[in-house]
């Protein structure tokens, strides 16, 4: 499942659209960035409420390809600029992390 397909399946808005639309290798849900650094897998999505520039830096370190910001959190321009520079998709949803995680898990299972 590509990032665009995942956004469609989740009903997310793509707010940073300058990225390579590769297949998602999975996802990791966390709001603790040190936890993301220790446990997220290459090529996956990060599901979080952390909407700031440091989230992009961590995503870059662990090769995350998409950040899904939940709960309609405002996304600052410096985060979007950093994500664009790194080629990381940024998606926005009104849903919470639990709901998004379950929906993406189910969608990824169907596409495998």
CATH topology (fold) name: Udp-n-acetylmuramoylalanyl-d-glutamate--2,6- Diaminopimelate Ligase, Chain: A, domain 1
How many domains, in number, for the residues? Answer: 1
Q: Strand-and-helix sequence, N→C?
A: HEEHEHEHEH
- The dominant shape is globular
* Straight-line N-to-C gap: 8 Å
Proportion of residues in β-strands: 15-25%
Radius of gyration: 12 Å
CATH homologous superfamily designation = HprK N-terminal domain-like
Low-confidence stretches: none
* Class computed from helices, strands and strand pairing: alpha/beta
Strand order of the largest sheet: 1-5-4-3-2
Helical residues, percent: 40-55%
Quick one: biggest sheet? 5 strands, mixed
The appropriate CATH architecture is: 3-Layer(aba) Sandwich
Average pLDDT figure: 96
Helical segment count: 5
Written overview of the protein:
Helix 3 packs parallel to helix 4 (77-86). The protein is built from five helices and five strands; from the N terminus they run H-E-E-H-E-H-E-H-E-H. It is 44% helix and 17% strand. The protein has one domain (3-111): 3-Layer(aba) Sandwich (Udp-n-acetylmuramoylalanyl-d-glutamate--2,6- Diaminopimelate Ligase, Chain: A, domain 1). Strand 4, helix 4 (77-86) and strand 5 (89-92) form a beta-alpha-beta unit. It has a five-stranded mixed beta sheet, with helices on both faces. The model has no long low-confidence stretch (mean pLDDT 96). The longest helix is centred in the last third of the chain and has 15 residues, at 97-111. The protein has helices at 3-10, 33-39, 53-61, 77-86, 97-111; strands spanning 13-16, 27-29, 45-48, 66-69, 89-92. The protein has 112 residues and is of the alpha/beta class.
